Amino acid sequence: MKHTIIFTLLFSLISTLSFGQSFTMEQVGKFSFPSELTSSETGQKIAWAMNEQGKRNVYFAESPDFNPRKLTSFNEDDGQEISSLQFSKDGNWLVFVRGGDHGGGNATSTVNAQNLPTLPKVEIWKINLTSGKVETIIESDNPYLGKDHQLLFLKGGQVWGVDLESSEKPKQLFEIKGNVNEVQYSPDGNQLAFVVNRGTHSMIGIFENPNSSIQWIAPSFHRDSNIAWSPDGSKIGFVRRPGGSGAAFPVLEPRHSPWEIHLANIKSETSQKLWEAPKTLAGSYTYPFFAFSGNDHIAYLSYEDGWQHLYSLDINSKTTNLLTPGNYMVEQIKQSPDGKKLTFSANTGPDQEDLDRRHIGSVDITSGELTWETTGSGIEAYPVWIGNESLAFFSATAQRSHLVAVKRGDNTQLLGENLIPSDFPQSQLVTPKQISFKAPDGTTVYGQLFEKEGGSSNKPAVVFVHGGPQRQMLLGWSYMDYYSNTYSINQYLANLGFVVLSVNYRLGIGYGYDFHRPSGAYYQGAVEYQDVKAAGQYLANLSQVNAEKIGIYGGSYGGYLTALALARDSDLFKVGVDIHGVHDLDGRYDLSPNYEQAPDLDLARETAWKSSPISDLETWNSPVLFIHADDDRNVPVKQTVDLIRRFEELGKPYESIIIPGDTHHWMKWSNMIKVDQATADFLQKHLMKN
User: Fold this and answer.
1) Predicted confidence (pLDDT) at residue 403 exceeds the cutoff of 60
2) What is the 3-state secondary structure (H, E, C) of 141-173?
3) Domains plus CATH for the chain?
4) Cα distance between residue 258 and residue 272, in whole Å
5) In a 10 Å sphere around its CB, with 0-12 CB exposed, 13-18 middle and 19+ buried, how is residue 369 labelled?
6) pTM for this entry
7) Which of 81, 92, 563, 653 is most buried when burial is the number of CB atoms within 10 A of its CB?
8) DSSP assignment of 583-601, as one string?
9) How far apart are CA 45 and CA 387, in angstroms?
10) Which of 97, 86, 90, 83 is nearest to 136 (CA)?
11) 690: pLDDT confidence band, cut at 50, 70 and 90?
């Protein structure tokens, strides 16, 4: 073991001297990363969580100076995330959840990345903004703040409540069959609307007090959700989808998923249908933003014109108005406190490169007046309103990682620049270039090329494949922590002398519905793999790249495509790092209703098998490093365990790293750096040797 460690250190030192590396993985891995940006409804206050090398804390700032203050003192790299950060209605308290992994399945299960003998807890915490006192409330999750300083939370599918200013223990508000998964107070705070899942259907109920019966809002045999109260509290808008599991349609046949917008008067037991999604595949987008504006308009999100856009629905005339026209997507939407405007992030602007960036826009829901709040070469994301006119958002460039920015009028103030460590190599990072190329079937594929100026005229190269797959890599630091990390790896590899191509393959967002939801993808044929292979061929055709020294790496869905590349095209991809990848797609098609009775089930199983890396192991000749954490809630570690067993039975060589106790998202920073360094070292060992 000691010899291995000494060799690794010596190899890294020689590599640093030989290839002109000017910073370490640990240094570039110190990127600043804020999350959970939120603002108060009263007063001009904002708060956010900041991850500083695994030490996650809550920061706070308020008008007029917006000087950041750290409110918590969690000073260990302990793997405990902060989520659900929000202000009380009166603006005097902050509430957050500490623990769990809310980016994966089983989010509320504790994360023990430190492998402690006593498991950490997932807890709701509160901060008194007057006294500064920070304390736990209860071991639970899913908090929601009601009027003044009332806190609700969901526990065991039931609704509990507590007064933040009281020392009393939380109490269950009411008992209900099924699992409550959504709550929303009426504007006056006297009634609580909720959605309860009863298995085959879900219904909206209203709880008023312990002595009154639950009132059901237009109950039906469907799935109702997305509660939106009108400002006067007389109406509730909601989304209705079909109940049950439906007929046994073919697994490989894409189908429209219907959804409708309904409006109910709370004094009536019926609702009226205001709008129905177009009966097209693009009209099937079923996770809409949904909110009232005044008493007569509802804003919603739809993919109906082929792009993810905001619309306004007049509830009297039942007519709709497109609020964000153009060939771009809208995400991360927030409504102003007065309900009149929306702010959002979008990949558009005056430059072609803006397709691979994010900028902030705002729109008046009634008039449709659209304003672009930011432009340029930066990345801006997750905006929130400060009052009804000012905004706060995350801001990054190609070199500087994300910080919080506040925009008031024409002035933008960047907060917390001192939070970026002094040894973070900002000035040494490259600016990735937007590139595009054609897949064999003619589809245009985009990507970002990372390359350090100068160096060898015979460079090794690497394709990076993101996960998701509903993601988009950008021309700057990502607004997602997982991809800020991979961006830092790409920068490290470029600094080392690699040419790196981050490929935005089909199934990703940002390029319209047809690109996002192509036919024949994933278990239905893996059509997206041709985009990845085309990325490798693009690199091979660059004059400065050695076509015999091209590697690939990726995580999650990117791990799946990495494994597919190594299994199918070892002649092109000479080496790869497969990080928590999916290797066997059998059973993935059970997402289709009643798939066991589907008429094409045998064909679907055969297609899924042929779309899986394990079906092409005979032609897998490239060296591979497998990495997986054993508490992964997104891709079960079984996927890598099974593939390694097959490798061993076939006598194929491999290297592997298992991370005990951590999850898909490397909750412990030191584990993230370990994985990043191992990835770079493996690629370097195989592609930079003489």
Assistant:
1) yes
2) EEEEECCCCEEEEEECCEEEEEECCCCCCCEEC
3) 32-153 (2.120.10.30), 323-428 (2.120.10.30), 432-687 (3.40.50.1820)
4) 16
5) exposed
6) 0.95
7) 563
8) ---TTGGGGSTTGGG-TTH
9) 9
10) 97
11) low
